[in-house]
User: Fold these one by one.
Assistant:
Number 1:
Amino acid sequence: MVQEQFYQKELSCLHKGASLPRGSPLQDLSPMLNPDWLICVGGGLRNSSLPVVLKHPVLIPGKSHIARLLILHYHSVGHPGRQMTEGSLREAGFWITGCKRVVSSVIYHCVVCRKLRGRLVLQRMADLPEERLKPGPPFSQVGVDCFGSWEVVTRRTRGGVAQSKRMGMIFSCLTSRAFHIEVLEELSTSSCINALRRFTALRGKVQVFWSGRGSNFVGVMNYKLFQSYLEKSNTEWKLNPPHAPHMGGAWERLIGVTKRILNGILLETKHRSLTHEMLVTFMAEVMAIVNARPLVPLSSDPEDISFLTPSMLLTQKHRSVEEVVIEDCTSNMYTAQWKMVQILADRFWKQWRLRYLQSLQQRRKRISSERNMAAGDIVLLRDKDVSRNW
């Protein structure tokens, strides 16, 4: 009998009508013997109108094999979670000591439950790439992606208005977190190349472009004239591995911010018909707003009014830097302006090193190492188009 194996002292005391030994794990349950001489829960529900099996369930040691068999029996009906499995055991008149731990263990090793609700295999988040940690000119290391689309009015006729779609192309500096948007007329290779040329004309030479494997970006990579342009400008284009959108999180996050701001601006305008010129203007306003975002948490010190933003580097303007006053328009003016620009740039990179880089030190998720998959492991492959199936 399993109770005799685990609760021999308690069973002997109950037969004699004596108190349980001090330190017994059953003291808080006020155990008693039922008519079948089994240890049951005495508890504090003796005077309730509940059925006897609920008032005085039979005690089952959680470390016994019969406890796991009972849990497997009631869990196999519908494969519910821990609480519902515990409830089924209580309704059947069983009280398993340490029930939560044992039920959780059984459910964890249940093949059907792991198939239906198993977690994906994840590894600890890798260290940040060197491109995000090395100071350099803005837009030297650039992440590229497309987003949208929006309906715009292209022409008006007597029969109504003609509309076409516009997309956005985002350029994110991986170092300074600066941000640039170009409007695309279509999501094609030629339109993307034109946007890239406009971007490089405004922001200067780029060392490395990073992007996903969208058909438009693959087309750009395969376009011979653009390949020669990249070679002449000593620019490299790197594509992320397939099915790895997390590797573009630095610019994917900004796409979400951009959409929220743009939707807010479009809602405030209350224009039903959006023109191409209006969309370009809105995109410029979104760029200004996003580039003015603080890169680090703001200080609670009321006297500290300076904060680090990408626009501080792009525009070389910051309200905490005093304006250099020049009375005479002489050659000294150019020296003073150069010094002011240097002060702003130096201040940005100093705060970038001391505050922004330090904020990247702590991992926010996936902080523990897991065992890597090896040959011979039985796994389930998750597919978006197919429900979990073998």
Number 2:
Amino acid sequence: MLKGNCIPLMKLHFRKAIILMLVAALGGGYYFLNRQNQTVRLTQIPDYRRPTTQPVDNSFSTLIPTVQPKTASIQTYQVPSGWQKYSDSESGITVYYPPQYTAKYNPNRGFGVNFRAGSYLVNESGDIVLDFYVFPYNGGSRRQSFYDVVEFDGPEDMSKFTVSIVDVVLNTRTYLKLISNYWATYASQGNQVFFLTPQGDKMYYFTYPASFESNSTDYKNILTIIATSVLSVGRGTSSNQYVYCYARPDSGNINNSWEARIVSGDMEVTQRTDKQLKQGFVDKSKISLSGNPQNPDFKYFSITDFDIYVDSSRKGSYQDAFVIKIKKGDVDRIAQDTPSSIPTVAIMSSINGGVETTDGKFCKADLYGYYAPKP
């Protein structure tokens, strides 16, 4: 009798134990997730003044736009009376801007150092308010397309410097608004904001210093300029004519796909390519070289007196090779401006279609860095 009554009693206690364990597990899970969320919030990069952005942690692989295009509210702007018109015929971008700004054209097309690469606007103080240009787009993630195109000296991964992303709709056109702290991290220049919008096989971009968002007049002007811009097909090289001919040079492929050395005072860079190159053809007008002093001021300077030519005898196991030669005077200047603790002299290069392949394509490589031991 006693044994018979014990069985249901044990079952009852067993069920209670199971329920208690489930409650404890759920409670513990909630506590753990809550602590995790608190940890993320404590380690996030500080937010900006504008309510449209949301900081995230460095786990960027899980980052998604804060606002989806279908839910982003439309912000409407019109061109104010008295504004002026400027067209960049190569990129196909036309903007309207206030009379206190001045439109500038940079002949060094493509992404360039500090983004003076397309056209840009300056205010009365001479500060650059807004840059705008275009780069090739093959579909897919707008964010990843931006990372693929924007390349810097050194091994930095641009995605690590993204503070926030959010979709913004201006006059029915959707932009990915991306804020980067790359310049704040390495150049003490503050964060940079990018508005990216794809149209066909092109990605149009507008970029400005985040500090302008604290000035209500400038910020409204910037949004009005972006919202009322006209985007069309420019007369520049079609994006499908560009190909990546070689990997970004870094410490992992030095003395393999590329190498640099000082020869009789000149800096000589050999870049091997995965594509066969058209012999005897290099368009120097599309190539930009800058001295990189590798100091905290980021004071690059343009190098205009240089040689660049195809030299297949240096290709090794690759399809082809070309050589960049920097003259001794510029090499000495780079070395002088480089901190004594750094044993190399460095340059930045943007090919921008200056090197052609045998099948009629153009090599695209923006802001690739090279370095050689100091003379």
